[in-house]
Structures are given as structure tokens and as C-alpha cells.
């Protein structure tokens, strides 16, 4: 679609034409880039001025919001901008698909509040990262939805699982899921449980920095993820992310063992009680954990049942056990407690005064599952060291080893979605479906 | 008090006398040590057989619970066991006091369930760590209470604060608080806020390993803490803990910037968004942060008001906002939310379906405080990057920078305990009382 009359008028009145370098300011955000021809893109808002940013990304800025536009000295010829439909796709390269779900990696400048919101298409990313075309054949690129990752729910986890399977069944060597970073580790855990007989890599990636920043990390994460989808020898749901603030390499992290540990760093995702399963550099994948399930010709399928009425509760000094009571009253069927230390809750000396024990006993009497994890995050829970732990174990609490609280939460919802009884859920929570729980402690995993 | 007839009979029947090396088994726990003369100790259960463990600690084992007792080949002469009253106290050494609150560091083998429970006195620790006598003069050593740290509540935080001040007012150079590790960082934060005009160090320490294990860490932590109490040049509430699994050095961590990051490692406590303020080795304290408030002649005082009706809530995919509603119905006055990433909650695309926004708006309408922190732990929250953040800020949520969620929780209860209005609380939550919030990000603090 061409630019609207409004945009054409705007450009004309300022002596600007496509290919010119400009600096525009919109709602407090300053952007510099080259004016893109509108015809390049068959989607988006006709009232938006499109810029090719220095980052290689495109930004669309609604013309109404532009407070100033300054022509700079630079200029590029239009042939510098490849058109998506003209990106050479080598039929010999391994086919992969992109599934876009939202997040910073799919963002453009947000006109509503001035921040970065979630309105970008995967075509835009391919358009912005021409390196991909020598690495993989992009068979499909679909925007499944455009949501901030904090808004995702089990129904989106199920949709992503189904879509990923569709892609693999259509012959993709692997799938890249573009996702907001905030809750990517929840989604990765969900996919790890919901996709059965996985036969190839499903790589989740995202961006910690918005595309209008010099420190943007999206390009490298997407390229590394495409490489993982095409070439990782394992059938694994994984996160692919910067291993350090530099662009030198990315880590492949097991989907059930990763956690966002920093609000803004490029290397925010870290393995917890685990090591990276592979390291991706420019040109190669170094497998660090050869024990993983290899790719196969199995037919994957999805199993996305999920019980919504599960909760993740934090136990700490003065924490009210009545939150669990309230949720029991509402019919909740399972709880993951983030206990203190080895898996404790206020209990021993507090009967009748803030103790969690009576509520936990009630939950188990009512056939709800109560699983214990640790807010320490690193290490494993153990009911046998202290009396508070033994009392919880005797009350029927299941201690979940070295499983992350977030992963335990997702796993519990998934298991309860299948209608298992309490005894079965107890056993299955301790069974490793996707590497989420293990014996043995490797000291080198601490604060990795 | 001497041993009871029952114990004397037990020893006699097995040909055992004080000083003999024995192996006893009680409720599944095997212990080896030397039989202690009962008269050494003026406290405890007369029916308990006392052993000096290889660790240097004493264990008391109730005679009824002993299933087997085997005499081993070793023997020590009784003069090897110093009596507390005979420990030479050099009047020239700096006076300090110990306050024991419970936890592993004050534990002995627990007869009730076979684990380690909380029944030990600080005299026992001094008796077990003779090195202290060349380092400090132990002016007082008081068992304030014997609680697992997960059971501590604001009233205990207040009691510890008051007791520490009493000690300092009596002329101590510093105070060591022996404390269970699980929630030590909550207590350290509470003391940081509750003690005003602090004039000397208050060092919290504990043990990750029970005293009957070869890997016990209590000795070094106590010795390092005594050194900190006597010689740290700063007036600071701090945690003193192993810097690594080895016994080579301990870190001094700011009381508002530490967190238990591992369930069982000796170096479980780490600084978050901060670096250690000092390193303690055998013989010296290396100050790493010279910017801290120095010791002074000020008179400290306590300010322990605390509003119990505050809560720390975790926001994650599918998390029920109704927990906040429920607590509002119960009269709760403030909330710290552990949001995702930069400080988000399910909100934007979820109006009417799991969005936290309506509940948060209700809370603020009802003059409750809502503060935002991040479950990432490392980094800082920022409402200005994404739309969900802006919507929360516009709703009146206070974004709490780089403050730890646990510390924000304690600080909020403390501020609300003083009856401040919402506007004042908002300002004061962003004011640094004890180094708990700061501008500037030091990349070297990540996963330190």
C-alpha cells in the first residue's frame, strides 16, 4: 500500500523524499534513519512514515505524532533496501518457520503512550535481517498474536505449541518463536510439556532492547535462533539468548531450566541448576550437553490440556496463609509454594498465629496438590534436614527437588489439566518429562 | 547440673566414661564424638548424653532415643575441653555481644523428628569456638529466642533491634546476631530500618550446614562476624557469610542488599544490585566500599513500628489478581508486587480477564500503597519503556528502582507502621534510608 496523502504532503512540505536521512521526534522519542518507500511493505498503517533505522530495523511513526523532522546530510539509494519478496531464498537451505507472538522483538515505536508496544510483523524482521537468507530458507513467518509476554496465558501456550507442531509436520527443520522476554521462560516450560514426541528444535528468542537503540540485541538473537532451528542436533524446546553483553555468542538454554534474571541486560536469561546446552557463535553451534534427545522422524503431537486453577504462592515472614485458604474456597486444585531455604514455611512455632501448616493440611485433605520449591532459586529443596520440612512432608507436601518454581507451576497446571488424581500428580511431578528435575548437583551451575 | 541417674547407668553399663570416643545412633542419625562431662554445662536436659563432635560442637542426645552406642578407640583428656567460665577474657580486647535467635547455628540434634531443630545456647557456641577469646571480649551472650528463621515475624525483628541497641548502649563495639539463614535477609532489612542513628556494626550470621557435618560453616562465620563487630569501621547492619565454598574469606553484605540465593551452599548469601562492602579473612578486614557511614558516638535508638497488613505478591502469567482484592477486603494497606521484567503485570490486553489493572486501581483508590519490584531480582524496574509500565504508573503504582522485593516489603510495613499517608509513603519508599535503593547500575554486580 502506498503512503497516504497526509504523509506524502508531509514529506513534500519538508523537501524530503525516499532515501533521505532524517531525524524525527515523536512524543519525546528521537529517531534517525532513512525514509523508506511505502510500497515496500504490504502491511501496516498508511499514515505512518517508515524509516530504516541505523540498526537495520524499520520503524513506523504515525505522522500526527511527529513534532519535528530534520533532514540530515545522508542519503541511500533505494536499491540498498531489499524487498522481502526479492530476498533470495535458496531452496537448498534448511527450511524453518518463524512464529511471532509479540514482545519487544516484534515492536515498533508505540504511538499511544510513547513507549514500545507490540505491533510488528515477522516479515519486518526478515526484511531487517538479510543475513538470514544465507542461513535458512524461511518457509513461513506468521504473526500468531501480538501480545506483551506478561499477558500470555495457557491458551496462548497451547496455540504456540500447536502452531510449532504444524510447522514441523510441514517439513520445517526447526521453528523460531519470537516472544516477549518477561515470561518467555514460562512459555518455554509450557511448550516443553505440551509438545509430545518433539522431533526438532523449537527455539524461543526475543529482545531486551528496543530496535531503536544502538544496543539492540534482536538481530543476533534471531540469527542464532535460526541457526539453532536449522542445525541444533537435538529435539528440544529451548531459549536462545545472548551469553554475555557482547554479541560474540548466544546460549541455548533448556526450556525448563532458564529464568530471566535481569530486567534489562542482553544476557538476562540464565540457566538455573543447569548449564547451557549449547553455545552459538557466528558460524557454528558448539554442543555442550550431548545427552539430550536427538532429532528424530517421530511425529510430534500436542497435549495442551491445562488446569487454570493452580497458584504459585510465596512463603516469607509474616506471609498470610489465608491466601491459600481463599483460593481453596474458590476451587483451586493445586499450589506451588516458593518456600524459604530448603523449602520451609512459617509453621513450627506459629500454630494458630500465621502458621501455614493448618492451611496446607486443609488443602491436602481436600485433595489439592501442594508442591514445595525454593525462593532461593538455586539448589534443591529437602524436607529431611529440619523439623519444619518434616512436618510439611508428613502433611503430604511434595518436595520438588531442584525444579524452578515457575516451571513447577506450569507443570502442575498441565498435569492437573489431564484429570490425574492426587497420588498420580505427586508421582508425576517428580518424574522428569523435559529435564525439569534431576538428581545430582553441579556446583558450576551456581549463578552461572 | 550433673547427668541423671539414667545417663550414668547407660554409660556404666557400656563401660563408657567421660573422654571416651563413641559412636551413637539415635533415630537414624549417627554421631561420633567424645563423651563430655555433664558438669561443664549449666543448662540443658539432664537426660541427654553430651558429645563433643569432631566439628568442635557439642551435641546432646536424649538417652531414650539412642538405639546403639559403640565405644571407639579414641580418648581425650578432659582438660582438652575448656569450660566457658574458664575461657580467658582479655579486658583489653574490644567488647562485643552475641544475640542468639535460633537457626542451624544454634541447633543441636533434634529428638522430636530426627532433624535439626532449634535448641542451642550461645554459650555453647563460645564453648565450641575458643578462637573467639583471642579476638574479642564477649561481654554478653543472650539467647533472645530459639526460632527457625521462617517463623520470625515483625515482633522478633523489633526485639532483636531493641536488644542490639541495648548492647551498643552498654558499650559494645558491635553486636553479632546468630540467626537462621532462611529469612536472615528479611531480618537484616528490618534491622536496617528499625535501628536509627546506628553507631557501630550489627552483624548477622548463621550456618548453612548443621554442626554435626564436616562441611559445617558456623565456626568461620561466627569468627568473621566477631571480627566485623569489633573492627569494621562502619556503622552498618550487615550479613557476614562465606564468600565461596572455601573457608578462605567471608563477605560483609549490606543488610538491605543481600539475598539467600542457594538452598544449601555455604556461600548462599549474595549481594543483589550491590557488591560486598568488605571482605574478612583470617586476621583482617578489607573494606571494599569506603563510602559507608562510619562508626560514631551517636546514641542509637529503635523505631520498630510495623504495619502487619502488607503483602508481597507475585505477578506472572495466569496469576489471579483477586488475591489483592481479597487482602483489600481484609483491610490490607500496602502491596509490593514482584512484577515481570521491568515491572509488569498481566494487564494490557486482558481487561476483564485476569488483568491486574482494575484491582490495582481499586487498591490505590482505597489509599493502599502499591509498589513495583521485579522477580528478575537483578536490575531495576522502569515504567517508561513499555505501555504496560506506563499504565501502571498512571494508575499510581510506585516503581521502586533497584530495590529487592523482600526489602521493599519490609520497608513498606515499617513506613506504614508510622501512619504516613499515601503520598508520604510514595516519597519515602523512593528515599534511601539504608542503601536499599540507588541510581546507577554497576554491571559487575550481576550474578556476583
Explain what the structure shows:
The structure is a homodimer of 448-residue chains. The first copy, chain A, is α/β, with parallel strands linked by helices. The first copy, chain A, is 23% helix and 25% strand. Chain A contains ten helices and 23 strands. Chain A has helices at 5-13, 122-128, 154-169, 184-194, 218-231, 322-329, 357-365, 387-395, 405-416, 422-429; strands spanning 20-26, 29-35, 48-53, 58-62, 66-75, 95-100, 108-109, 116-117, 137-143, 174-178, 195-196, 202-205, 237-242, 249-254, 258-260, 269-271, 278-281, 284-287, 301-302, 310-314, 334-339, 369-374, 398-399. In chain A, a hairpin with a 6-residue loop joins strand 13 (237-242) and strand 14. The longest helix of chain A has 16 residues, at 154-169. The interface between A and B is large, with 85 and 85 residues.
Features:
448 residues, alpha/beta, 8-stranded mixed sheet, 5-stranded antiparallel sheet, 10 helices, 23% helix, elongated
CATH class of the largest domain in chain A: Alpha Beta
The CATH topology assignment of the largest domain in chain A is Rossmann fold
| Count of strand segments of chain A | 23
Uncertain segments of chain A: 108-120
Amino acid at each position: 500500500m502506498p503512503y497516504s496523502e497526509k504523509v506524502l504532503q508531509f514529506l513534500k512540505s519538508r523537501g524530503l523524499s525516499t532515501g533521505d536521512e532524517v531525524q524525527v521526534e515523536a512524543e519525546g522519542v528521537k529517531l534517525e534513519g532513512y525514509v523508506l518507500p511505502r510500497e515496500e511493505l504490504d502491511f501496516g498503517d498508511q499514515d505512518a512514515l517508515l524509516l530504516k533505522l541505523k540498526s537495520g530495523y524499520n520503524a513506523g511513526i504515525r505522522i500526527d505524532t511527529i513534532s519535528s523532522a530534520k533532514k540530515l546530510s545522508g542519503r541511500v539509494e533505494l536499491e540498498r533496501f531489499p524487498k522481502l519478496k526479492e530476498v533470495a531464498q535458496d531452496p537448498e537451505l534448511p527450511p524453518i518457520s518463524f512464529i511471532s507472538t509479540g514482545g519487544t522483538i516484534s515492536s515498533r515505536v508505540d504511538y499511544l503512550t510513547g513507549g514500545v508496544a507490540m505491533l510488528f510483523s515477522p516479515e519486518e524482521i526478515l526484511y531487517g535481517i538479510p543475513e538470514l537468507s544465507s542461513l535458512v530458507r524461511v518457509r513461513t513467518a506468521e504473526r500468531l498474536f501480538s501480545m506483551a509476554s506478561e499477558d500470555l496465558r495457557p491458551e496462548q501456550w497451547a496455540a504456540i505449541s500447536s502452531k510449532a507442531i504444524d510447522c514441523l509436520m510441514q517439513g520445517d527443520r526447526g521453528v523460531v518463536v519470537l516472544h516477549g522476554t518477561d515470561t518467555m521462560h514460562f512459555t518455554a516450560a509450557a511448550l516443553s510439556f505440551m509438545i509430545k514426541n518433539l522431533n526438532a528444535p523449537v527455539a524461543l528468542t526475543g529482545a531486551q532492547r528496543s530496535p531503536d537503540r544502538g544496543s539492540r540485541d534482536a538481530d543476533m538473537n534471531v540469527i542464532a535462533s535460526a541457526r539453532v532451528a536449522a542445525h541444533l542436533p537435538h529435539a528440544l524446546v529451548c531459549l536462545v539468548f545472548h551469553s554475555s553483553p557482547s554479541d560474540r555468542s548466544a546460549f541455548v538454554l533448556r526450556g525448563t531450566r532458564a529464568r530471566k534474571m535481569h530486567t534489562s541486560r542482553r544476557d538476562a536469561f540464565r540457566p538455573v541448576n543447569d548449564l547451557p546446552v549449547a553455545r552459538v557463535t557466528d558460524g557454528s553451534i558448539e554442543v555442550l550437553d550431548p545427552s539430550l534427545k536427538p532429532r528424530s522422524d517421530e511425529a510430534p503431537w500436542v497435549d495442551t490440556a491445562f488446569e487454570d486453577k493452580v497458584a504459585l504462592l510465596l512463603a516469607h515472614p509474616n506471609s498470610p496463609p489465608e491466601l491459600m485458604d481463599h483460593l481453596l474456597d474458590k476451587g483451586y486444585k493445586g499450589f506451588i509454594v516458593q518456600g524459604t531455604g530448603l523449602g520451609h514455611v512459617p509453621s513450627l512455632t506459629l500454630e494458630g498465629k500465621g502458621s501455614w501448616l493448618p492451611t496446607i493440611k486443609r488443602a491436602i485433605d481436600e485433595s489439592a496438590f501442594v508442591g514445595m520449591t525454593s525462593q532461593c532459586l538455586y539448589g534443591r529443596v529437602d524436607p529431611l534436614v529440619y523439623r519444619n520440612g518434616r512436618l510439611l512432608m508428613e502433611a503430604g507436601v511434595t518436595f520438588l527437588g531442584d525444579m524452578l518454581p515457575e516451571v513447577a507451576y506450569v507443570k502442575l497446571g498441565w498435569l492437573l489439566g489431564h484429570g490425574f488424581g492426587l497420588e498420580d500428580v505427586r508421582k508425576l511431578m517428580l518424574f522428569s518429562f523435559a529435564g525439569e528435575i534431576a538428581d545430582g548437583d553441579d556446583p558450576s551451575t551456581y549463578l552461572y
